[in-house]
């Protein structure tokens, strides 16, 4: 073989090997978002079972796409939009958009989620200026979505209002 033929052969083999490596790399299965969360010290049950895709940048910025908006009942009712964004760090999610929690018939945006480092049995949700501590166990299992609030678990009980009084008792808050 001449020098030109040898060079062409090497280029051909290099291209074939490169394509093979690229093919193997691109065909690897993408980890699920439920596998990614524990690698960041967070429970996999923070998101419902309807995630269809996600993107995670090297700097931690992420986008999670759900099949459709939905509700999940934890200690509080949580609403997930179709698109959830934020920044994933070890032990926390900051700049969170797309998750709301219901409290006293009002909906509040969840701005941040974090866990203790070293790990404990608590998880914290930042909602505006309020930081709510909850039991971590309820977020360990990925839960099913509900399409609406019209479920027996979410129906408001009938409330009998008290008779008017002259004195207003002190209200207890969390």
From TrEMBL:
Name the chain's protein: Uncharacterized protein LOC113860138
Is Iron-sulfur included in the keywords of this UniProt record? Answer: no
Native species of this protein?
Abrus precatorius
Say if the entry is tagged with keyword Signal: yes
Q: Which InterPro entries match?
A: At5g01610-like, DUF538
Task: Write the signal peptide boundaries.
Answer: 1-29
From which domain of life does this come? Eukaryota
By its UniProt entry, which Pfam families does this protein fall under?
DUF538 (PF04398)
Keywords, A to Z, come to:
Signal
Q: Which Gene3D superfamilies match?
A: At5g01610-like
């Amino acid at each position: 073989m001449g020098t030109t033929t040898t060079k062409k052969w090497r280029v051909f083999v290099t291209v074939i090997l490169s394509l093979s490596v690229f093919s193997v790399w691109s065909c690897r299965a993408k980890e699920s978002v439920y596998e990614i969360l524990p690698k960041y010290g967070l429970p996999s049950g923070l998101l419902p079972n309807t995630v269809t895709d996600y993107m995670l940048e090297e700097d931690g910025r992420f986008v999670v796409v759900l099949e459709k908006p939905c509700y999940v009942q934890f200690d509080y009712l949580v609403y997930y939009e179709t698109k959830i964004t934020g920044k994933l760090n070890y032990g926390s999610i900051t700049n969170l958009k797309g998750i709301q929690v219901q409290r006293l018939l009002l909906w509040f945006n969840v701005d941040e989620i974090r866990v203790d480092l070293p790990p404990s049995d608590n998880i914290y949700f930042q909602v505006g200026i309020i930081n709510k501590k909850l039991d971590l166990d309820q977020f360990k299992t990925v839960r099913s979505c509900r399409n609406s609030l019209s479920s027996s678990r979410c129906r408001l009980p009938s409330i009998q209002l008290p008779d008017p009084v002259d004195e207003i008792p002190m209200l207890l808050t969390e």
